[in-house]
Amino acid sequence: MRIPALTIFAAQLAFLALPAAASTPITLDQAMSHPDWIGTPVDTAWWSWDGKGVYYKQKRDGSPVRDTWLVAQGGKARLVSDAEAAKIDGADVVYNPGRTRALMLRNGDLFERDLKSGALIQITRGATRLEAPQYTSDERGVHYRIGSDWYLWDRATRVVGPAALLRAAKDPAAAEDDPLRQQQLRLIATLKRQKDERDTLRERLNEQRRVDPTLPPAPIYLGDKVEVEDSALSPDGRWLLVVTAPKGADKGRVGKMPRYVTESGYEEFDDQRTRVGRNMPAPHTLKLVDLRTSKVQDLSFDVLPGIKEDPLAALRAAAKKEPLKGNRALRVFGGIAWSANGANVAVMLRAVDNKDRWIATVDTAGASLKPLHRLSDAAWVNFDNSEFGWLPDNRSLWYLSEESGYSHLYTQPATGGPARALTSGKWEASDVSWSHDGSVAWVMCNRATPGDYEVCAVNAKDGAVREVTSLDGVERFRLSPDGKKLLVHWSGSYTPVQLATVPASGGAAVKLTDTRSEAYKARSWIEPQYVAVPSSAGGDPVWAKLYRPAQLEPGKKYPVVMFVHGAGYLQNVSRRYPNYFREQMFHNLLVQKGYIVLDMDYRASKGYGSKWRTAIYRQMGHPELVDYIDGVNYMVAQHQGDAKNVGVYGGSYGGFMTFMALMRAPETFKAGAALRPVTDWVTYNHGYTANILNTPDIDPEAYRISSPIEYADKLQGHLLIAHGMIDDNVFYQDSVRMAQRLIELKKDNWELASYPLERHAYVQPEAWYDQYRRIYQLFERTLKQ
Quick one: how far is CA 321 from the chain centroid? Predict the structure, then answer.
């Protein structure tokens, strides 16, 4: 819902002045126990084929099994039996243009539903890796892909056969320009006769293929120097776009992760990822295959604007590296989209240096790319908000772009005419779903505040935007088969994800589920106050969630705990159920014990536009630390925070920031718990780190100033490091290296807690409890003096 800014701030002030209902005391053991006590969650949900019911998956209490449930129109949820499961719909549906049929994947196999009669046909059984189902442009059949091969199911004959067979190998029929081979064929008549006979049979088979549709097509040989990474078949079956990478590209040295607590009783070792810069993504090539002639042509990237420019030239020169020669390396990112009639195709490409993203169409007759859109960012182009596709007219492309500074929806003719922004403003559009006639786009939107998510309807004709839900915490949605309703996943601060239906035109929500346990629903919680913390950096405030008593004792100063969410690019200050629901319960416990807590969406967080996201470019841990110091000052000035007793904690990126807080601002932060933390960005993965810090070989200074291990000598406060020993995201080695550094520096008041059976995301309640017991004890002994 749209709320004026002045109203928001007035509501904040009024809320602070009102007493809140007393919360139910929570114990640490309860907060860290298995989350089934809260209620087993709703997973995937989808419409029945006729739109009269909703299916969803729900975890069984005390079991990893997910059951399927059905909520019929106006009824209560009931369990779908195993016998019924063979007749139900799948969650992922592809409609034909006339919306009379639908394809769905279920248990890895492909089915088709007749939307007039309801009849269900199984197309495959026991298929492996079946992907990308689509209707043929004449709707007489269905294409799908298994591995690198495309298949066609013919509706009339019910026959399945190959449509395109890709081979990353040499064509065995192609004559090699080998002098010895030519000599053999010239001197040995038998060999020459055998070759001629093979050629004759092969040519005869090709003649038959051209007129006999019952025969399979000849394989398409791409050579033995490439690997096939993706492909997309035109719905008319004429063209195939193929994405390849060099075969045998250097993947870099992989990490070895030891596991000490194993079923075998012996130490075991797993191969893990490589480090940033050690496995530069292999460049892609894009090939166009004419399936009528088997002709393969490479599509040149030369036409893409800026392809020869090197945005890292200055850094490369400073590092005394060779300058860029030729085009920048590219990868197909975001996929390939054919129009439903097969007349147009678009592809999204991204520079390996992360600074540019292009959308181009393909001139199939001329075997060339036609640039349509370029998005550039001096820092990095966002991986999110990269959706694109074709409108039902088969002539207009739609896409999301951050070119205005926020993710918004655009349309553009395939002919390359001017683009048209359908949405605009200081909010973000995402998760686009179009009406079947292309007149309306439904999008996720956060127009009121960055953390208030609803579904918006966007008129394709005039760009008018209106919110059609008023649930505050919409997570995702699906349009009903007739386009008249939305199936919405929604949540709240203390309400895990639930289901509701809402008229697509707007109106009251009908809530379908409440999976919370009676024990959980009986509890009262401290509702977070959503506050805008003034920024000393200027510009927009930093949104945060504040946990504190409803009434502060006059004259009392409260120890302050600052929580740092993980991932860097994640949003935790929203009206939704947090990823950090255990931490939220821990914050309730801390308030019960006399603390006040602030959870901030520091710069780099999601949902605030590209400038906010890229503020950390080449300086991770610096703008965010300014935000957290501003948060501490806010807590001291506005909520009786004790400036001399401030703690900080968080996991992953939050653990990294805990290090940066204790080591770069020891005068502000007295104690901290760094959980599964990055200590040196040189050891993290490429896909995430190279966006923000480039690579260590050309930007070593960015890595130096961004890595906590470089500041270990500045540690003064009390530090807890906690890490799972089989963490395959942030390696346990990160914490071990920091521990050795602290040992050599003769630092006091720190400890390392290790968890032998936990990965990055802890699972076992015992490990959760042990970790948060240590955090609580750390704050108790250091912040209450």
Answer: 33
Q: What is the pLDDT of residue 260?
A: 86
Residue whose entry in the numeric block shows the structure tokens 């530090």:
719
Handedness of CA 236, 239, 243, 244 (dihedral sign): positive
- Residue 229, CA distances (Å) to 31, 148, 221, 345 in order: 44, 8, 15, 18
Q: Which of 213-227, 336-350, 478-492 has the lowest mean pLDDT?
A: 213-227
d(CA 766, CA 724): 13
SS3 704: helix
Q: At what angle do helices 581-592 and 765-782 cross, to 10 degrees?
A: 40
How far apart, in whole angstroms, are the C-alpha atoms of residue 516 and residue 445?
Answer: 27
Q: Give the closest residue to 335 by CA, choosing from 354, 316, 353, 348.
A: 348
Reported confidence tier of residue 355, pLDDT bands at 50, 70, 90: very high
How many beta carbons lie within 10 A of that of residue 703, not counting itself?
23
- Whether the CB-CB separation of 340 and 97 falls below 8 Å is answered with yes
Q: What was the pLDDT predicted at 198?
A: 85
Cβ proximity of 434 and 398 under 8 Å: yes
Single out the residue of 663, 735, 737 nearest to residue 705, CA to CA. 663
Cα distances (angstroms) measured from residue 718 to each of 274, 384, 618 = 32, 37, 28
Check pLDDT > 60 for residue 14: no
Q: State how far the alpha carbon of 681 is from the alpha carbons of 43, 58, 143, 677, in Å.
A: 34, 38, 44, 10
What is d(CA 252, CA 273) in angstroms, rounded to the nearest whole number? 9
Instruction: With CA atoms as reference, report the closest residue to 448 among 475, 471, 421.
Output: 471
Query: What is the distance between the alpha carbons of residues 512 and 391, in angstroms, rounded to a whole number?
Result: 32
C-alpha dihedral over 220, 224, 229, 231, to 10 degrees? -10
Tokens of 654: 């939050």
Beta strands per DSSP E along 581-621: 596-600
Averaged over 16-32, what is the pLDDT?
75
Q: pLDDT tens digits for 117-160?
A: 999 999 999 888 899 999 999 999 999 999 999 999 999 999 99
Q: Exposed, middle or buried by CB within 10 Å (0-12, 13-18, 19+), for 372?
A: buried
Measure the CA dihedral 752/755/761/767, to 10°.
Answer: -100
Reduce the DSSP state of residue 286 to 3 states and report it.
Answer: strand
Contact 723, 754 (CB under 8 A): yes
Quote the CA–CA distance of 565 and 578 in Å, as a whole number.
10
- The C-alpha angle 606, 610, 613, rounded to 5 degrees, equals 50
Give the pLDDT confidence score for residue 7 in this predicted structure. Answer: 38
Token couple for 270: 């797993």
Q: Counting every residue, how long is the chain?
A: 785
Burial class (CB in 10 A: 0-12, 13-18, 19+), 13: exposed
Local structure of 346: helix, strand or coil: strand
DSSP H stretches of helix in 127-187: 179-187
pLDDT given at position 174:
76
Using only the alpha carbons of the chain, give its radius of gyration.
29
CA distance 647 to 668: 9
Q: How far apart are CA 646 and CA 632, in angstroms?
A: 8
In contact, 125 and 100? CB cutoff 8 Å: no
- In terms of C-beta density within 10 A (0-12 exposed, 13-18 middle, 19 or more buried), how is residue 541 classed? middle
Whether 421 and 409 have beta carbons less than 8 Å apart is answered as: yes
Q: What are φ and ψ of residue 236, in 5° steps?
A: -85, 0
Residues 6+ positions from 99 with CB-CB distance below 8 Å? 115, 436, 481
Please name the residues in contact with 402: beta carbons below 8 A apart, sequence gap of 6 or more: 375, 377, 381, 382, 385, 408, 609, 610
